[in-house]
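User: Could you check the structure of this?
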Amino acid sequence: MNIQKAVSEDVDEIEAIYHESIAWLNGQSIHQWQEGVYPTRKSAQMALDDDSLYCCRINQKIVATFIINEIQPPQYQTLNWKYQGPAMVLHTLVVRPCDSGRGIGRLAVEYVIRQARKNKYHCVRLDAFPDNKAAVRLYLSLGFEYAGKVFFDIKEPSYEWYDCYEMKL
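Assistant: Sure, the predicted structure tokens are below.
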């Protein structure tokens, strides 16, 4: 698998992956994201413009995408994070549903951890929807530690609480 920063020509395919993933998650009764709210083409374009959007490719096909930067949502300020110092934040890790179960998410997160170490971050932070058991298992298996819950008011009613995790580097 090849992981690299996205380019403008990738945004159409990333948008399609977002739509596929939202539909697949909803079909599994995982109300993590909401169509037209997040993630959207606009959020992908903003991350591309900020040089923080990445693609995972197998044979030139995008099989996953994610965003990494230092931006911590304001809700993160409500938590007592265990690890201080510069934090790399992983956002919107999306594996194309037809490619799930192949270890792609693990490889993507391992890449994020390597990049964070290489760039001298003290920790990696992220939030995960608690009903997305596969994602939670992945983060815990890689050594992330539970840091608390945050409330995102833009989420669908009854699905606003997300679990936060961090990993010391």
